[in-house]
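Hey, quick one: can you model this chain's 3D structure?
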Amino acid sequence: MNCCALTKTMAKLLVMPHQDIIDGFKGAVDFYVYMGIPCARAWPKSPGKQRSPAVMARWPIFSFASKEWPNLSQAVQNAFIELATDSGLSGRDMFMRAYLSGLYRYPIP
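Sure thing. Here's the predicted structure for all 109 residues.
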């Protein structure tokens, strides 16, 4: 395998381009902000149909959690939405994280 095939290209930008420019590169260039720095990289590629056994083993768990969000009461959904405020996640994303890997990763004294 060519060693360069594994190289990921990323560029730091001085400023984030206008949305029209970003839209023009959709599917080719991924623009994002990392730690306050505007960046661009080659659009992420799908790894194809082959997945590792560990990834495939989590599919039923992810599927169940995805289907459960609408079944939560509005009060519980609102709690996740409020918890997600200023986190960069949606309430649903916060729920998925909590369900899949635990909301709090360390013991609370």
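One thing worth noting: The first strand starts at residue 10 and ends at 12.
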